[in-house]
Amino acid sequence: MSARFGPAAEGGVVTYPSRRAKSDGRVVILGGGPCGLACADELQRLGHHEWTLLEAAPAVGGLGSSVVDRAGFTWDLGGHVVFSKLRSFDALFAGLFSPEELLHHDRSSFVRHHQNWVPYPFQQHLHHLPRAAAEVCLADLIAAQSLGVAPAETDFATWLEATYGRSLVAEFFAPYNRKVWSTDLHDMSASWIADRVAPSDTDALRRALDGGSVVVRPWGPNSRFAFPATGGTGAIWRRLASRLNGDVRTGTAVDRVDVSTRTVLLSDGTVLAYEHLVATGALDKLVAMTPAAPEDVQRAAAALRHTTVAMIGLGYRAPTTDRRSWLYFPGPDAPFYRATNLAAYAPANVPDADPDRYSSWMTEVSLPNGDLPDWAALIEACDAALRRCELVPEEAERVSGHVELIPYAYPVPTVGRDVALAVIQPWLEQRAVYSRGRFGTWRYEIGNMDHAVTMGQDIARRLVHGVAERLNPVAIPEVTGAHRAR
């Protein structure tokens, strides 16, 4: 069965160039991460077998990959857990694992606040702060909420203060977000917030401060999550790739995209024709490898910003006694912004699957401007911070210090991002190039694994049957109203 390849149900009219190589209706997919694999899988399910997937890395997985170091510890590329509200993702995931191959956890997360641990979300647990600090934060929060919603089209810094008050922002939100994003918060938009930031109930906070009963219900879609029993998060994408029967080429990079002839030039000199191109890598790189992109598209792509993160994995010959999931570090006492207790996720993440003998902490350090540090010194600094916070016993022997550099970790939702996307995406779509996935859309708010999978599935359905996409990046959301957290 071949695809219809007519104008899509949404996303604009496709312009067909006059000089086109013979493509046999082929869909070329750039990138073998969650989005690209899901696209190929859905094309296969729909009976369209004229597709080719190109992955520059030696193996599939993209940002969802996992690695095993020389000491036998399994590390993910960043903090990944499986949760979703999207049925198509759930169905795909259920088809890859039997119930006994998954471990399920209730999220247990805390924020390191000075020398103490405050349960996450921070703004719902002010009663864990020193009384004086809690009272000031609550008073500022009440005052902020009394003024109503934050102004429309505001920046992130202004939104935070208008929503939570100056003191709460100073205690947690500002230092943590600056540490994560390595970006001035005034340069970030608030349009991405959605359900990414938890609300605050001032009445409940007052009752807690006055000694009343505290009932904090689990918040957020990841309050309960799954994790593969073996293989880390990367096991998901290896299994998905294993059921593909089409043309999957790893270790194959693309040097140039010619939208006039609908061809891609591979690094080995091969020219591959396509009818439609699904690009799941970084949008700015896609534009850079497309010489026909006009100046306004190039300028818009150059304005996009992203974070670079170093994953520092630290393994110890010491039992896993801490059962918490992950911890946040807004302060300067640790170089990392988050530490994930991977041994608690799955025993197989440590050597011999023996958490009674080993423990492991995956730490994430945002690198301002992508500057590369002294790796040995950074490992030592992360190790010292874990011990200083008593997550690792002082006498514990470190048996692994593993580094993974993630050049493109998170797309930064800058103030000008949506304007840039409104220039880039329609130009690509009109030339049968569909940029999807975390960095293909450059929208952090739809940057989870389930979002990436959904985008891959949806673009496949759109190309084959003309079905509208649920997460269409061409329909850039406008900030038409103010945001409110209650």
In summary, what is this structure?
The protein is α/β, with parallel strands linked by helices and 486 residues long. The chain has helices at 34-45, 87-94, 131-146, 156-164, 166-181, 202-209, 234-242, 283-288, 295-302, 342-345, 375-388, 417-429, 438-441, 449-465; strands at residues 27-30, 51-55, 66-68, 74-76, 102-106, 109-113, 116-119, 224-228, 247-250, 254-258, 263-266, 271-273, 276-279, 306-317, 326-328, 338-340, 359-366, 397-411, 433-435. 46% of the residues are buried.
Task: Give the tags.
14 helices, globular, protoporphyrinogen ix oxidase, domain 3, 5-stranded parallel β-sheet, alpha/beta, Polyamine Oxidase, Chain A, domain 2, 486 residues, disordered C terminus, 3 domains
Strand content: 15-25%
Shape: globular
Tally of DSSP β-strands = 19
Q: What value does the Rg take, in angstroms?
A: 23 Å
Low-confidence stretches: 1-18, 477-486
Q: Report the top-level CATH class of the largest domain.
A: Alpha Beta
**How many structural domains?**
3
Distance between the termini: 50 Å
Strand order of the largest sheet: 7-6-15-16-17-14-18
Structure description:
The chain is of the alpha/beta class and 486 residues long. It folds into three domains: 27-56 and 251-304 and 413-465, FAD/NAD(P)-binding domain, CATH 3.50.50.60; 67-84 and 102-107 and 306-411, Protoporphyrinogen oxidase, mitochondrial, domain 2 (Polyamine Oxidase, Chain A, domain 2, Alpha-Beta Complex), CATH 3.90.660; 120-209, protoporphyrinogen ix oxidase, domain 3 (Orthogonal Bundle), CATH 1.10.3110. Helices cover 30% and strands 20% of the residues. It has 14 helices and 19 strands. The chain has helices at 34-45, 87-94, 131-146, 156-164, 166-181, 202-209, 234-242, 283-288, 295-302, 342-345, 375-388, 417-429, 438-441, 449-465, and strands spanning 27-30, 51-55, 66-68, 74-76, 102-106, 109-113, 116-119, 224-228, 247-250, 254-258, 263-266, 271-273, 276-279, 306-317, 326-328, 338-340, 359-366, 397-411, 433-435. The longest helix has 17 residues, at 449-465. The protein starts with 26 loop residues before the first strand and ends in a 21-residue tail after the last helix. 46% of the residues are buried.
